[in-house]
Amino acid sequence: MKQARRAARTAIEQFSRPPLARMMQLHAQLQARKFPNCRKLAHELEVSEKTIQRDIEFMRYQLGLPIEYDQLHFGFVYTEPVTSFPNIQVSEGEIVALFVAQKALQQYRGTPFELPLRAAFNKIGHGLKDRITFSWSELDAAISFRPVGQSVADLEVFELLSRAVLESAEVEFQYRKLRSRAAEMRRVRPYHLACVDNQWYLFGFDRVRQQVRTFALPRIDNPRRTGARFKRPANFSIGKFLDSSFGVFQSDGRNKVRIRFQRFAAQLVRERVWHHSQKLRELRDGRLELQLQLGSLEEIERWILSWGEEAEVLEPARLRQRLLEVGKKFVSEYSAAAGNR
After folding, report:
1. 0.70 exceeded by pTM
2. In Å, how far are 39, 247, 270, 282, 317 from 259, measured between CA atoms?
3. Which among 167, 221, 229, 158 is positioned nearest to 193, based on CA atoms?
4. Phi-psi label, residue 241: left if phi above 0, alpha if psi -120 to 50, beta otherwise
5. Do 300 and 257 form a contact (C-beta atoms < 8 A)?
6. Per-residue pLDDT tens digits for 99-108
């Protein structure tokens, strides 16, 4: 019964007013010398006495407010004059940056991160709404994100794997590679989850292949924890692991890639950072040369094809040859299709 009451109280507190609102009410009672105590405030605000005690400790030790317990009046009191509650100093630029970050988090919709992130932003917004001179609704009308090609990863799969990463728990699952028709069993020590180009990937040590491998979440089926635990290597770094990748594909090779863009595409290429190794060289007539250092060439091949006639590979020779073969296949297939009309 006691456990049930504690669970009910916890549930109530999750939906009660944010901590800042509680502290503002406590501040008002202290200023009015009403000598509030934990029991009365907990009853008024429908939270536990421990929650009120934490609020008081935060106000005392983090905000530096002179709060002491008055034995005579059985409540707390300000021992020195306090004219106003300490303000959170936030600039307009910081508020806009925060709002942009909130908008960018739309890619986490449908994941276990959605509700806690939304709650966090709501609490911050509630605490700041009286400290800013412009409207959140104005920002909402002025700024938005439109992600294209969002991941369709299953929520249950995502939640199981994210917990496995956090808890260093080994997992096994059925996985279907891009060029395979049948799925195969994988036993993996999950190291990291990352969203790359709107797609979620798991990076982990494949026990059978004895290598760190990359797994796209939409191609993972029936994951389960094996019960085994592991210690993630201290030298594992997702930044180093993806250092030579244009996306997530890995290779032991090191390829110098040079691509020449016509004027129209050149302007678009200048406007973004495509890879940390990129170097740009301006050419005549507004054209541009992009140089990269990459391991795998598979992802850059698809990216180059997306530019159509605006992009030409200068090196390496094998990538140029590969695109020549793709071009010939395009001509053959489209010519045949036109002849059948």
Report:
1. no
2. 70, 17, 13, 12, 12
3. 158
4. alpha
5. yes
6. 666 666 666 6
